[in-house]
User: Fold this.
Amino acid sequence: MYKAIRVYDLDGVLVDSSHRYRNKPDGTIDLQYWIENRTPEKIAKDKILPRARQYLADCLNPARYTVICTSRVYHSVDIEFIVGRLGAPDKLFMRPEGNNDADGVLKRKQLAALFNLRQFNKLPRYLWEDNNHNIAALSHMFDRVFFIQSNQGA
Assistant:
């Protein structure tokens, strides 16, 4: 029986992928640049951040339902990296191919569907996120939000 839901952003929270990331002049992610730099060779250079130890402990704790909610576009190379280097979460939310929703909008929709399930709708929820725009869009859905300082969040 789950007693809490723990949600982690991926980039800037669990993984440093800043070598493949850049912002547009308006501060949003340059998604086209990101997609162009998701080669297996470049993804292999992503570094695991210290918060990943906590994430793995949550994955191994049967009382915690652990989620990665990332704005990365769904791609098999990313799945292999997540499962192989971090450990498989209970649920993985990624951006569907062709979806151009703002990150916070996308994450809110994905998480709302999960949180509305009867077995999850009354559990305490915790979020680790490095993007202030996403925190503003999501904070009302969580009991506690942890801002993680990174060089990737807006």
